[in-house]
Amino acid sequence: xIRLFLAFLLSINMGFCTPTxxxxxxxxxxxGDMIKSVGQDLVDVQVIVPENADPHIYQPTPKDVALLAKAxxxxxxxxxxxxxxxxxxxxxxxxxxxxxxxxNISPRILPGPDASVNDPHAWHCVKNGISYVRVISEALxxxxxxxxxxxxxxxxLYIKKLQDLDTWVRKQFDAIKKEERLxxxxxxxxxxxxxxYGITFLSPVGISTDAxxxxxxxxxxxxxxxxxxxxAVFIESLSSRKLIEEIAKEAQCNVDGVxxxxxxxxPDDKTSPAQTYIDMIRHNTLEIIKxxxx
Length: 294
Hints:
The protein is of the alpha/beta class.
């Protein structure tokens, strides 16, 4: 009886000592994975745009409003990526900090019909991903001051993995001539990857998936595939296969596989290839290499 009473007291004491996790909301799955990698068991990370959903065209729900209302910290990509976010945050009543993970990135700027716009897909360059991680880590340390040393340790270990990943990606392209590094994708999401690793990406659609390709853009791309004998042609995980398959058919080439641009793959499918940011970069790189060598 005494043992049971002591065990009961111990369980109560342990309950009181269990720290409350910081509730962090990320706008999309790639950011969410970075936050989890740094915060680990110190954070409870919720993602607004889930895996296998398109952040460009996402329509927020009442559930998202409730999620933000309960958040301790909100982290966004920035760089004009989450066009739907301002209205959502206003409706939620959230008054805490909003951290822009891409705040230290020098963005690619594209001319628009009314004003210049930023290319938001900076995470495809791993060095930019490291910049995101440093911003995330700083924000978590400011919120969890007593756990600062643990967060610094997590950050250092994760950044080392990303530095190794960046080196690995560069080595994969060593054997391929630069003039042969031509890749076709659905929309213009991989410029940062191409700029960092020496690849030229071509696409019929601009930086947002909600844009419609013009007939002239499609015709020019088909002609370029033919004249330059481009072999690496890919669909994207969130886009319809139809457009790229029609382009490939007209250009008389094959579609090589699937790349992940704006979202990770679902963790519910244990065979899916892009469940983490590192997995996504590795998968995309291996697919591109396979396509270039085909």
